[in-house]
């Protein structure tokens, strides 16, 4: 893996106005970098701002402050975005938790998977759109007999895999997946995470993987960032983070992971985390190589 930075999120801030005077600060001065070819995991409890980060990165929200550089292009700058629109739309793909529910109910699976290629006039590498769809379906573990089915005929898990196949068919350089497997059965979750790992190794795309399941993150990710109330509290290589968590909040999150061994599981203690009032804003400091903690 080289160290080229594909995605550079700088001081990202996004809030949602509730009334004229009140706003929810969903993301607060958050910075991180995604290197080309790596899988970066963003974890944190529900409401910590993960989805807002994903949506800002994919230009679905326009942040109030900060910059998001993708291949050096400031994607939040309207002119730069317009100038690079096609490149941005073809090389970045998003999968979200309920991608399945946004599939067009009246399109056949093969057309759904091929639609982005059609829209962007991309020649299917395997000859026809149908062949391409079949290939991607095989990859995500969907039977080819589904090619001519419609979403309502599929289970939720199958629909989510159609959404994943559609994103992968574009052979993205950046895949942003916002809790892509949370709606799937546990057995299929493992299968899809294995698939992600395999595909990422094969194609080397860069992957922003958002999850609250830490076991999946530990298995899949190269580096992990821990989010809390819109901020990053700790960023480190995965093994380092799981072996030597430094921030009390990270320790608390890790203490909540169930242990498969029943004896150790019974002895497992939850470490509560309560942020002290007036706690520092949390600038990240590098405490050991590539390991950053807020202080
Ligand atoms: N469209 C919205 N309008 C108002 N508040 C929102 C909106 N989307 C998210 N929020 C708020 O922003 C915060 C972060 O939400 P979100 O990014 O969805 O977190 P996560 O994905 O980690 O659960 C939460 O407090 C949430 O209630
Ligand atoms: Mg979310």
What does this structure look like?
The protein starts with a strand and ends with a strand. Helices cover 35% and strands 26% of the residues. The longest helix has 18 residues, at 186-203. It has 295 residues and is an alpha/beta fold. The protein binds adenosine-5'-diphosphate and magnesium ion. Adenosine-5'-diphosphate binds next to strand 2 and helix 1.
Q: What order do the helices and strands follow?
A: EEEHEEHHEHHHEHEHEEHHHEE
Strand arrangement in the largest pleated sheet: 6-7-8-3-9-10-12-11
The CATH topology turns out to be Rossmann fold
Proportion in β-strands: 25-35%
Overall geometry: globular
Structural class: alpha/beta
* Mean pLDDT over the residues: 91
Helix content: 25-40%
| Main beta-sheet strand count, sense and barrel state | 8 strands, mixed
CATH class: Alpha Beta
Poorly predicted runs are: none
CATH superfamily: P-loop containing nucleotide triphosphate hydrolases
Which terms would index this structure?
single chain, 295 residues, alpha/beta, Rossmann fold, 8-stranded mixed beta sheet, 4-stranded antiparallel beta sheet, 12 strands, globular, binds adenosine-5'-diphosphate, binds magnesium ion
SSE blueprint and pairings:
Layout (H helix, E strand, L loop, with lengths): L4 E13 L5 E13 L3 E5 L6 H8 L7 E6 L2 E2 L3 H6 L1 H7 E5 L12 H11 L9 H11 L16 H14 L4 E5 L7 H18 L2 E6 L2 H7 L2 E6 L2 E7 H6 L4 H8 L6 H6 L16 E5 L2 E4 L1
Parallel strand pairs: 3-8, 3-9, 6-7, 7-8
Antiparallel strand pairs: 1-2, 1-4, 4-5, 9-10, 10-12, 11-12
The protein binds adenosine-5'-diphosphate (ADP) and magnesium ion (MG).
The site of adenosine-5'-diphosphate has 11 residues, from strand 2 and helix 1.
């Amino acid at each position: 893996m080289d160290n080229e930075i594909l995605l550079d999120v700088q001081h990202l801030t996004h809030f949602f106005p509730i009334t004229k005077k009140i706003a929810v600060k969903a993301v607060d001065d958050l910075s991180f970098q995604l290197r080309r070819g790596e899988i970066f995991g963003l974890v944190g409890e529900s409401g910590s701002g993960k989805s807002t980060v994903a949506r800002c990165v994919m230009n679905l929200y326009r942040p109030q402050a900060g910059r998001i550089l993708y291949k050096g292009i400031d994607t939040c700058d309207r002119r730069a975005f317009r100038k690079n629109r096609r490149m941005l739309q073809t090389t970045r793909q998003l999968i979200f938790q309920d991608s399945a529910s946004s599939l067009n109910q009246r399109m056949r699976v093969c057309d759904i998977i091929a639609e982005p290629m059609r829209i962007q006039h991309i020649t299917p590498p395997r000859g026809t759109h149908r062949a391409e769809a079949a290939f991607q379906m095989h990859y995500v573990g969907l039977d080819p007999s589904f090619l001519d089915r419609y979403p309502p005929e599929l289970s939720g898990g199958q629909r989510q895999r159609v959404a994943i196949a559609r994103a992968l068919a574009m052979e993205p350089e950046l895949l942003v997946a916002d809790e892509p497997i949370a709606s799937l059965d546990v057995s299929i979750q493992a299968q899809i995470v294995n698939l992600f790992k395999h595909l990422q190794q094969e194609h080397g795309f860069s992957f922003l993987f958002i999850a609250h399941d830490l076991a999946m993150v530990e298995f899949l990710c190269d580096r992990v960032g821990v989010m809390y109330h819109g901020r990053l509290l700790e960023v480190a290589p995965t093994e380092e983070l799981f072996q030597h968590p430094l921030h009390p909040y990270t320790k608390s999150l890790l203490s909540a992971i169930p242990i498969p061994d029943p004896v150790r599981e019974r002895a497992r203690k939850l470490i509560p985390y309560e942020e002290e009032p007036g706690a520092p804003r949390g600038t990240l400091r590098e405490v050991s190589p590539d390991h950053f903690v807020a202080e």
